[in-house]
Design brief:
heterodimer, A: 215 residues, mainly alpha, MetI-like fold, 8 helices, B: 252 residues, alpha/beta, 6-stranded mixed beta sheet, binds adenosine-5'-triphosphate, binds magnesium ion
């Protein structure tokens, strides 16, 4: 196998890796906010549920969670497993990352001084407006460094999709390496992850810079 | 009367902080509240501005009841929507300014009028610029709070409260977080507002200021109003032993 056929075979995997990455962020960034807000719900049952969810997610390996999402419906409810690979994969990633993002959001929300809420209340902001106009913009600025860390971890975590034999770049690298007895595929995969992280770090840095207009 | 608070009671987990306090403020009046730490001054302002809920008593703005005590002796507030209407009667200036750091000065002044009072952007900005000029910081309209000195920040906070066109403005130790050389500029604008007959209640430790600017001084201690009256009377001729003791500490 020539280098160029290797590259073109693996580029399909790179596309799939990017897909997992993008869909996970698209789902988990907003879901994390909902989780963070539900954590402070009026209802003890909701708060309790969220606490258990977060501690289970943080207390077990993502790889195991992916297997549970994939095989769970089949073993528990005898549901067909065909076509379930990709949805279960995204579900597993989104639910996992939402828990981590929720914790980041919570820390950010709690770091906003109570005086901001009081000033907003006296100025007639409703609860919703206080959150959207006064609190959230400040939270976003404060949590950017932690979010960047998490997003970079996600780039690398996408390789866990190999557990479900999903043909993303890492799975392909392993397969091609074995069949061609070549080290090259791993090098290609490594370079791909490295560049992907470089791009992510660059974009996040631009966002942080854009938010630097105030302190 | 702009505000009337009758028989206000408030406790925090067992601690009686306001014990049956009654007080009212007439239009154009400037009232200073003095008293030792922990006497309940801030709590009184926070109850008046609906940041804290009272346990008993009644609160009226412009003769309308915002809270009253029911047959069981519990305080009952008007419902949520109406409370927003009562909130628009009063403004509060905090010791720590509490400006919105992500908004520039102009937006700090216009955001609430536009989004909460549904004024037009043009009107809100014109009002804001007028107020900033009055505070002597018109050139800071595009600056962010972190770029301002404490005295400038507090003047922005006063302008922000005034931009809502409140009937009465409450100040909770507006100069206590400032370096001594910056208190003057803030006291000056409050004095100017007093001359324009803005109705104000000022919690302060600045005795000369309280004496010079207010129409009435109120001495609070241990959750009650110990003594009140004309500032010269209270400062030069206090009747209560507790007041004398407090003022003696300040004379030194
Ligand atoms: N949220 C709260 N929870 C519990 N106790 C409180 C709370 N707010 C105030 N207190 C207590 O109520 C009492 C009165 O407090 P308050 O802040 O009204 O006093 P103050 O007269 O403003 O004092 P200072 O001059 O120090 O500002 C104090 O004993 C204080 O510890
Ligand atoms: Mg106080």
């Amino acid at each position: 196998m020539t280098l160029s056929t290797m590259l073109s075979t693996m580029s399909a995997g790179m596309l799939r890796t990017t897909g997992i990455f993008a869909l996970t962020l698209l789902g988990s960034l907003p879901l994390g906010m909902i989780v963070a807000l539900l954590r402070k719900s009026r209802f003890a049952i909701v708060r309790g549920f969220i606490r258990v969810y977060i501690s289970v997610i943080r207390g077990t390996p993502l790889m195991l969670q992916l297997l549970v999402w994939y095989f769970g419906p089949y073993y528990l409810f005898n549901l067909p497993i065909r076509g379930w690979r990709f949805p279960s994969l995204i579900l597993g990633f989104v639910v996992n990352y939402a828990a981590y993002f929720a914790e980041i959001y919570r820390g950010g929300i709690e770091s906003i001084p109570v005086g901001q809420y009081e000033a907003a209340t006296v100025l007639g902001y409703s609860k919703g407006k206080t959150f959207m106009r006064i609190i959230l913009p400040q939270v976003i600025k404060r949590i950017m460094p932690s979010v960047t860390n998490e997003v970079i971890t996600l780039v690398k975590d996408t390789s866990l999709a190999f557990t479900l034999a999903y043909q993303e770049v890492f799975s392909l690298a392993k397969q091609i390496s074995a069949s061609q007895t070549s080290f090259m595929p791993f090098l290609i995969a490594g370079v791909f992850y490295f560049i992907a992280n470089y791009v992510v770090a660059f974009i996040m840095e631009q966002i942080e810079k854009a938010l630097n207009y105030y302190r | 009367m702009i505000i009337e608070m009758n028989n206000i009671r408030k406790h925090f987990d067992g601690l009686e902080v306001l014990k049956d306090i009654s007080f009212g403020v007439d239009s154009g009046e400037v009232v200073s509240i003095i008293g030792p730490s922990g006497s309940g001054k801030s709590t009184l302002l926070r109850c008046a501005t609906f940041l804290e809920t009272i346990d008993g008593g009644e609160i009226l703005y412009m003769g309308e009841k915002a809270a009253h005590t029911d047959a069981e002796g519990r305080a009952v507030y008007v419902h949520h929507q109406q409370l927003q209407h009562f909130r628009s009667y009063c403004g509060l200036v905090f010791q720590q300014f509490n400006l919105f750091p992500h908004y520039n000065v102009l937006k700090n002044l216009t955001d609430a009028p536009i989004h909460n009072q549904h004024r037009s952007k043009d009107e809100a900005e014109a009002t804001a610029m007028e107020l900033l000029a009055k505070m002597g910081i018109a050139d800071k309209a595009k600056a962010y709070p972190y770029q301002l000195s404490g005295g400038q920040q507090q003047r922005v906070a006063i302008a922000r409260a005034l931009a809502m066109k409140p009937e009465i403005l409450f100040f909770d130790e507006p100069t206590s977080a400032l370096d001594p050389e910056l208190t003057g500029e803030v006291l000056k604008v409050i004095r100017q507002l007093a001359e324009e007959k803005m109705t104000m209640v000022v919690v302060t430790h600045e005795m000369p200021f309280a004496k010079a600017v207010s129409n009435r001084v109120l001495f609070m201690a241990g959750g009650v109003i110990v003594e009140q009256g004309d500032p010269r009377e209270v400062f030069e001729n206090p009747k209560e032993e507790r007041t004398k003791q407090f003022l003696r500490v300040f004379d030194r």
